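Record passed on here:
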Amino acid sequence: MEKVFWECPDFSLSQTLECGQCFRYEKKEDDCYTVISGQKVITLRQVGDSIVFYGDEDIPFWKGFFDGERNYNEIKQRLKENDPIMAEAISFAPGIRILKQEFFEMLMSFIISQNNHIPRIRGLIQRLSQEYGTPLEEGFYSFPTPQQLCDVTEEAYRGLGCGFRGRYLEDAVKKVLSGDFETDKLETLSTEELRQRLMSICGV
């Protein structure tokens, strides 16, 4: 049942989900998408400039996930005026928004994405979630937390098909569990400090 219409100009649901910045979604035959983030699952569809949410879900969370309060038209105009490469990219896919994904899931997903293609990345993340995550509704699983992955070895990651990335994934979990990658701490760092902190993880 349709619950909420969210008016969101300068936004394409398909371009945003399918551009390669996230991997935990399923497209259905009626152009609906089911998206998983953390412990949450939502089904939604675009109708013109509106996003239709199905079900009694945490709508404010999902509006935040899609960066819904930011004025992308203003940003795009500024980029087009100052950067010809960005102007070409914006013209090609004007509806992309930058998702506000949970740090650990994003870190692990992009380690998995190295030298890989989207269907295989999605398959690896799905297997990792099914093996170590928490069951959610409709047969979906949450992405596992660092605590759920604390004892997973490089060999176990390789057994799921992660290959050489297994060493990087094991290291990433250990570094995150050390406490040096808490979101509130990362947000206080300068860009260069943050870059150096992230690059202390093997494979970043």
Summary: The first helix runs from residue 13 to 18. The chain has a mean pLDDT of 93. Strands lie at 2-7, 25-27, 33-37, 40-47, 50-54. The domain at 2-92 is CATH 3.30.310.260 (TATA-Binding Protein).
